[in-house]
Amino acid sequence: MPIRLLAPEVASQIAAGEVIERPASVVKELVENALDAGARTIAITVEEAGRKLIEVADDGCGIPSNELELAVSRHATSKLVRSEDLFFISTLGFRGEALASIGSVSRMTITSRVKDAKEGARIRVEGGMAGKPAKVGATVGTIVRVEDLFYNVPARLKFLKTDVTERRAIDSLVTRYALAYPEKRFKLSEGKNVILQTAGDGDRRSILAALYGVDVAKQMLEVMAEEDGYRLTGFISPASLTRSNRKEITFFINGRWVQEVALNTALLQAYHTLLMVGRYPLTALFLEMNPRDVDVNVHPAKAEVRFRDQDRVFSFVQRSVRKALLAYSPVPNVAPSLWGTVRTTPSEEKSSSVGLDWAIGHDEGVGGGRLGVGSDQLSVNSDQLSVNSEQVIVNRQSEIVNRIPLMRLIGQVGGTYLVAEGPDGLYLIDQHAAHERVLFEKLMAQHERQNIPSQALLNPEVVTLPPGAAQLLLNQLPILSRFGFDVEEFGPNTFRVRAIPILFAGSDPASALRAVVEDFEEDETPLQNEVEARLAARVCKRMAVKGGQTLSSEEQRALLNDLETCESPRTCPHGRPTMIHLSVDLLERQFGRRGAR
Ligand code: ADP
Ligand code: MG
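Above: inputs. Below: predicted complex with magnesium ion.
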């Protein structure tokens, strides 16, 4: 076939494919246009999940009658003039593509009136062919009606999912934009049913309830952080509230919804060791920064961005989320009506705050007594203080809120759990999970100070691994040496362990080495410190005392003391709880000493 220029309709359908994938993409572009136009109220109506109709009406600035024709042609925008402007984009749109694209794959009608005009105008575009604008009576603002989406692109139609799925995509999009712009009034209707309506009073919590339901919204933690030019606000779920996929992780940058890998990674790192493997948090986070520091012109649907200084953004997000997270970390309670079942409920906020008051009171009052417990504890604390002032503040905050209260050890049951009494009832502590947490924090603290004392083995141990595992271990050797392991290659697939960290003295070195390569998965984004923390967590799990191992009362007491000094004592590094709390209140109710249930 000879080479020919594509007919304009074909070219524009191809281009439209990049921006308009499904009904929700139309809603996104039109809502963004309304926001750019300074609308206060945005009303969205869809029929048949947007296949039959999508209408977006706003009370924004409107389009002048004589510009309507231009507005629906490709590469026509009022938001960008010179190419330099591309590096300072403060509007959501700038590509001048959306209206043209939508018009080429549907029957679209735009009715608009600007403030000072006597009347409005209307233009109709069908399958990319625009009619002549006609004068009509209209209120100030713009109404875009998109009918029969993809009627002329049957292949696209076939790729659409079920109505339920497409509608959910629209609902979730509009709800998230409503959350990002709480000062605007959004209304989403499906036919005659109103799905979402926001007050535009700036209150994000109530919109959050529309997105996640009241129960979940109540548990969400608020984030509010600001640091030289960056601002992060919004909500994150506590570690106890998770999903099995990343779909509920939402980030907005400067008012634009983005799917950004680096931000997701920063977020997950902030949750590190608090979540179980394969679980993901729910978040709605809003990052604001100078538009010059972020390039939004890298993706046709503008869903990806590039940062000028990715490391700074990354560390800001990671620290801000971590801080918010550590400020709240409840001990799971036993549900009163379901003995034996562990459940985390929002009402624990109450019981954990009892522990909190007590802990603060205690720190101030009898604090000296605590430091007297063991002298090595004292030295750890003072070392931590010398790190740097910012970190001390972080530690301090998390310490106060997150610490567990001092407890009186009662003993061990089943060779597996420690039983202790705290200021508000009884605690059952899983000795394995607790020891894992203790070892992990000690190891990481030493690692941070770059001072991991190690102990040479009298008889260096030789370990042979299967070839795959050996290769993995070989790659991890530099990290291992930073953790105080002296391991050398000693023939094919064989290694010799010459020293191990003192922390693990007396345990089996071969087993520590195997732990490193066991169920190792390639990281999606292997960030150095995340890999290190994971590796440390894996080794600590292997080295920790096991369930079923009888501990002497000195060992029990030492474990409890160590746990009390941990920064995140309530979960093991893999996110499982270390303890269960039976409050006095619960006990009294169970024994019928107080009120009806
Ligand atoms: P972009 O948003 O990238 O500029 P669009 O194709 O979405 O491109 O819109 C083209 C132009 O039409 C915009 O630049 C704007 O001037 C005008 N426009 C579109 N929608 C609206 C609206 N709801 N209110 C006012 N003007 C609008
Ligand atoms: Mg636009």
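Confidence is low (pLDDT under 50) at residues 333-401, 521-526.
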